Amino acid sequence: MGGWQVICWALVLSTPLLIGPVVYLALQHQGAVSAKTWWAFGYVSLFSQFIGFFAWYAGLAMGGIARVSQIQLLQIFFTIAFSALFFGEHVQPITWLFAGGVIVTVMLGRKTAVRPAQPGTLPAGVQVKP
Q: Which residues, other chains included, contact 99 with Cβ-Cβ below 8 Å and sequence gap of 6+?
């Protein structure tokens, strides 16, 4: 099954599970939600949560899942950095410390050579397919 099919089926299968919480929270909301807010919500939902995944899965297919997927670990730290830079958000020093640790871990993981296991080194009953 291709990446785009996984995305579409995940959305279809998760919709029934999300209807209840969405309706409950909508009823708990105090005040009206403007049309502009709904348009913004729809835009973010469509582009970052749906169409963006097509590009992400295409990138995974082109670069290899083991190598490219580690980049996603850095996404939250770019978000934090941009929110501090553009919106003046205060970021605690411990956050930057952990961001540095994750960056170092990702860099080490990307440089680590991944070699297929040799047939004689596997546990009993495990086989390597060529």
A: 77, 80, 81
